[in-house]
Write a structure and sequence with these properties.
Largest sheet: 7 strands, mixed
Strand content: 15-25%
Strand order of the largest sheet: 3-2-1-4-5-7-6
Number of helices: 8
Number of strands: 7
Structural class: alpha/beta
Bound molecules: 3,4-dihydroxybenzoic acid, magnesium ion
Oligomer: single chain
CATH topology: Rossmann fold
Radius of gyration: 17 Å
CATH architecture: 3-Layer(aba) Sandwich
CATH superfamily: Vaccinia Virus protein VP39
Helix content: 40-55%
Shape: globular
Number of domains: 1
Distance between the termini: 43 Å
Order of helices and strands: HHHEHEHEHEHEHEE
């Protein structure tokens, strides 16, 4: 069993259900499994999404017919591989990683997956790379996954909106943090960043959003899900 980011008394039950579901719906896959092993062996933080979460992200990309995906925070490219496989042959994912050591592991995982033609890995701090993407007119992206350092989440959301279009789906990872997100007085910089991100989403008339709590082998966490409104769309 993986070590959960947010342990909880029921994490063993949640993990056994995750394992049952993933055996049925996201069965063992040599490429994805090799990526997880490579990430763990290289000592990357065990912050990869779970298989069931990876499948959820991939399905969301397929549900909206995504062709262009932007991922902020590659880590070892486990989620990148899920997204890349969900794209049509002509689709691409741009994924941004600040840590060159993580990026090297990610590159090897992407190459082993045979996905280097569909993945553009950009190495650098996202707050440096995102303006370059705008300058290159790399957007608009159909789906943007924000999964990097949480204190910068508000700035990542600002950039996501600049690289989006009406209909773009914006997903933020790790917004529950074992329940810590509900603590308005938290001095945890990750919680403060996530709360500021959620406040911005809530206050932005361009966005329509929800958040889902997830339990499983990663413990108790969740995703923020937002869609950029059509300009013609009124408040719902
Ligand atoms: C953390 C970051 C992640 O992206 C994740 O999936 C789990 C935990 C963290 O910074 O604590
Ligand atoms: Mg994450």
């Amino acid at each position: 069993m993986r070590k959960p980011d947010y342990p909880h008394a029921d994490v063993e039950k949640w993990s056994s259900v995750d394992s049952y579901f993933s055996t049925l719906l996201a069965p063992a896959d040599p490429v994805l499994d090799a990526a997880l092993v490579a990430n763990a062996t290289a000592g990357l933080p065990a912050h990869d999404v779970s298989a069931m979460q990876g499948k959820l992200l991939a399905l969301m990309a397929r549900m909206i017919g995504a062709r262009r995906v932007l991922e902020i925070g590659t880590l070892g490219a486990y989620s990148t591989i899920w997204f890349a496989r969900a794209l049509p042959a002509s689709g691409t994912i741009v994924t941004v990683e600040a840590n060159p050591n993580y990026a090297e592991i990610a590159r090897a995982n992407i190459d082993r997956a045979g996905l280097s033609n569909r993945v553009e890995l950009r190495v650098g701090k996202a707050l440096d790379v995102l303006p370059l993407l705008e300058a290159e007119a790399a957007g608009p992206f159909d789906l943007i996954f924000i999964d990097a350092d949480k204190p910068n989440n508000p700035d990542y959301l600002r950039w996501a909106l600049r690289l989006a279009r009406p209909g773009t789906v914006i997903i933020g990872d790790n917004v529950v943090r074992g329940g810590a997100v509900a603590d308005a007085d938290s001095d945890d910089a990750n919680v403060v960043g996530v709360r500021a991100f959620l406040d911005m989403i809530a206050a932005d008339p361009r966005l329509d959003a929800t958040a889902i709590q997830t339990v499983g082998e990663k413990g108790w966490d969740g995703f923020a899900l937002a869609v950029v409104r059509d300009t013609a769309e009124g408040e719902r």
